[in-house]
Amino acid sequence: MKLGRVRNIVVVAGAGISTGSGIPDFRTPGTGLYANLAKYDIPYPEAIFNIDYFSDNPHPFFSLAKELYPGHHRPNYVHYFIRMLHQKGLLLRMYTQNIDGLEKLCGIPDDKLVEAHGSFATAACHLCYTPYPAEEAKQAIMKGNVPICTFCAGAVKPNVVFFGEDLPEKYFQHAEDFPKADLLMIMGTSLKIEPFASLVNTVKSTVPRLLLNRDPVGPFERRPLRRADYMELGDLSDSVRKLAEILGWHTEIQDLMNSHENGLRSYTDPSNSSGENSDSSETDSMH
Ligand code: CNA
């Protein structure tokens, strides 16, 4: 990167980039959602994202959704590092499995982002797919109610992709993006969920793959590693900060983060006379 030989970085990310924002991931022992599912009263951890289970009983997912709905959490240094990749003109695309919306909130533009497992930004009936106003769905879920489809009376859910559901159309852009990548950065994912996990095997075999994660995952669990594979194990914020320091970007990222977060705070401050609370329009104004 320092030598300017890298111009098309693809970032592949998961829940581990948001643990620094206070959102638990799935699989970290002790703190991950899978270790703390007793309160949702479900028969097995994956049931919470299983569409058939949701059909019978949407309440466990809705309880979790209350915690995950965008608005409660702020992006962290790792998100801003990725935004800096974009600002430096190096980000070809970010593929995220996260549904917390923090990538958008930190200012990564829509055309650089693929939310492969959907988001809370839109909602629809889980049976007939009739769209439903996302804000109304959120209000109902927050009050502990089930939003109901006006067409078929099925339960409405935010367009977060469940096991057994199709991925959004944008995801299929990977067929063009990954062959163009000249560096793949894999961050904070256990690479356990398909088809997303196999994306990391679709870059050219000579392309460097950098894993920043607490533990080795996917192809990094096998030995020997590919010649161009490298992993930095440990806490993601530490590893990303170390990388930013090597690149000489650390202060710039901190400044960006401070000014953007202050902007977001004053923009979303209810005492703000405009009374608006739209992160996307705020983000637009940053570009
Ligand atoms: P996962 O299976 O929980 O894996 C997370 C990975 O990140 C693990 O390998 C952890 O060791 C690692 N990790 C966690 N925190 C750190 C840290 N601070 N430093 C370094 N490594 C860390 O989650 P995946 O994303 O791989 O699984 C995909 C699921 C998780 C997607 O379908 C998401 O929708 C779903 N999910 C998303 C969120 C979110 O949007 N923030 C939260 C929880 C689950």
UniProtKB/TrEMBL annotation:
GO terms for cellular component: nucleus. Residues 1-250 form the Deacetylase sirtuin-type domain. Residues 261-287 are annotated as: Disordered. Keywords: Metal-binding, NAD, Transferase, Zinc. Binds 1 zinc ion per subunit. The keyword Transferase applies. Transmembrane segments: none annotated. Residues 271-280 have a biased composition (Low complexity). NAD-dependent protein deacetylase. This is NAD-dependent protein deacetylase. It comes from Cyprinus carpio (Common carp).
